[in-house]
Amino acid sequence: MSGGVFDAPAIDKKIKETEALTAAEDFWNDADKAQKVMNDLKLLKGRVEPWRELMQQIDDIKTLYELGSEGGDDSVEEEIREELAACQKKFEEQSILNLLSGEVDKNGCFLTIHAGAGGTEACDWAYMLSRMYIRWAERHGYKLETVDLQEDEGGIKSTTIQITGDYVYGHLKGEAGVHRLVRISPFDANARRHTSFSSVFIFPILDDTIKVDIRPEDLRVDTYRSGGKGGQHVNKTDSAVRFTHIPTGIVVQCDSERSQIMNRATCMNLLRAKLYAHYEEERAKETAKFGAEKKDISWGNQIRSYVFQPYTMVKDHRTKFSVGDIQAVMDGDIDQFIDSFLQAQWKGLPVGGDDEDDDL
């Protein structure tokens, strides 16, 4: 597997510059700024140190092989195979990490899911997708927080989840688009096969180094009483917040916290993320890059199909990658799809969703 551009000397130089900052006497006077510098330092070291460890492991394997060959000891063969397999796994993991070199790839993200065509079926499908991404995040040890949740009798109409961790956005950015479900409906008394759609949007969590200007006069702020779970306090006070950015028409809302102040802060972070994506889309002139939400959530616009009947298969229509173990995928095992998309992007292969059924 080949990785992306990797400039070890440049990264080493950046590490030395960052370490010099930490040596300053007043470094910890601003705890938040210091913590960010330390996190940046950890990320930088994480780009080069694993490669050096891998090279050392390979040298150790060579030494073990030479010793076994000279001594005629065949017992080391199994150990060498195990070490090579471990090296291959680490190599693949680091190669994927090298592909995440975008401005915001290292950041966390806001993941939003909307149910589309299909009524109750689609709401159930939106819930299943949210569970899939939550399980994926839990597998990787990322922090999760539900920012907004609009429930429906059969599942959810929409939800926004904040996922915090290193390179979350870089990994998940390719998940934006329409996801299609084909199965025998549990809501159909006649047990007929149904097709449902839900859309996934991915927006990066922005840090202080990325500026997005939001003028107060361009913002309309509404407060309302939050419904659903959260206790009597949530339901009896106007703690939920909705921001409308008038020039773009972008609307964000948050009702996850009991405090209106905390909901306002989260709402502003989400709005900054969406505006960043909006302006990036305008600059790049690529509606498919950040603008999957502009597509209809219906037939012909899907990036991936999940088939439960009459057979089981999950297929990405952009990369043509597919697997048959759909239950593992729904339990969060989606790294193969993420990696294949990143590899296709790096190789310059077309990764636009197609309009054909592709035998599904």
Please, could you describe this protein's structure?
- This protein has 360 residues and is an alpha+beta fold.
- It folds into two domains: 91 residues, Methane Monooxygenase Hydroxylase, Chain G, domain 1; 250 residues, Alpha-Beta Plaits (2-Layer Sandwich).
- The chain is 44% helix and 21% strand.
- It contains ten helices and eleven strands.
- Strands 2-3-1-5-4-9-10-11 form an eight-stranded mixed beta sheet.
- Strand 7 and strand 8 form a beta hairpin.
- It starts with 7 loop residues before the first helix and ends in a 13-residue tail after the last helix.
- About 4% of the residues have low confidence.
- Its main location: cytoplasm.
- It is found in: Cytoplasm.
- One of its GO terms (cellular component) is cytoplasm.
- Peptide chain release factor 2 directs the termination of translation in response to the peptide chain termination codons UGA and UAA.
